[in-house]
Design brief:
mainly alpha; globular; about 260 residues; about 75% helix; 16 helices
Length: about 260
């Protein structure tokens, strides 16, 4: 049923773009769908082509913020955000997650104020401020109480910071079988498991994130949560796989004119 709904959504978005090729929101949501179904490279190439044609939809650049980050093009992701905001100062982008991967935590938190994503506890935990991270996770759990997946993520973070590894697994279990295939989201669940002292569970989720198209090697290499995995053969193999795919997409991006567009 979920695959049918995804196919119907993609068909509807394609039809919307056939009727109105200048429909910026349709370009954005189609990219989101492509990314969430493990095809960030397809989203990236399509959005670059659209932007290179000198169309000025801010939503196309907002989509590039997301797609570039997934493919490890972090400077280009920030540049796409800047382009989007120049076109529309009110447009929402996911640049806070790009700043997080870059470990530019102050800017990430500035963007998080108006975001619909929990970030404060993750940043505080990444910088070793566990007591403050626990308090922030509790606040975010209340803030996102009406969004079960986000509330569960916040609760799992708090359990990890408090050393309750069995609770982390209990909270994560319903989402392990979920049809939602957002590779970046799964990556962050991997961070939680690593923080909870569950390296095998963490690696399983990180491998799944890569399978679902999250090829941002800087995230795997630079996350302080994943330091306990460094040196493990399985983690090294994962990194090599992610780097190889990232290099291939970066070459396609350059050939398509993406670097020149977002320089």
């Amino acid at each position: 049923q979920d695959s049918t709904l995804i196919a119907e959504a993609e068909s509807a978005l394609q039809r919307a773009l056939e009727l109105d090729p200048d429909n910026g929101p349709a370009h954005y949501y189609r990219a989101q769908l492509e990314i969430d179904t493990g095809r960030p490279d397809e989203a990236l190439m399509r959005l670059v082509k659209r932007a290179a044609a000198r169309h000025v939809e801010p939503q196309v650049y907002a989509g590039l913020v997301h797609a570039c980050r997934y493919c490890g093009l972090l400077r280009e992701s920030v540049s796409a955000h800047q382009h989007a905001r120049r076109l529309d100062p009110t447009v929402s982008t996911s640049v806070l997650h790009t700043y997080y991967v870059q470990r530019d935590y102050d800017r990430a938190l500035e963007e998080a104020i108006t975001s619909s994503d929990p970030l404060e506890a993750r940043v505080l935990g990444a910088t070793g401020q566990d007591t403050k991270a626990i308090e922030a996770a509790r606040r975010e759990e209340a803030r996102f109480a009406q969004v079960p997946r986000l509330a569960a993520y916040c609760a799992a973070q708090r359990a990890a910071f408090e050393g309750r590894s069995s609770d982390v697994l209990a909270i994560a279990e319903p989402y392990d079988s979920s049809s939602v295939s957002d590779g970046e989201d799964v990556f962050h669940w991997g961070e939680i498991c690593a923080r909870a002292g569950l390296p095998g569970e963490a690696l399983t989720r990180l491998e799944r994130a890569a399978d679902w198209g999250y090829m941002c090697s800087q995230a795997y290499e630079g996350s302080s949560y994943l330091v306990p995995l460094h040196g493990m053969t399985r983690f090294a193999a994962l990194l090599e796989r992610v780097r190889a795919r990232q290099r291939a997409v970066a070459e396609q991006f350059t050939v398509a004119g993406g670097r020149a567009l977002l320089s």
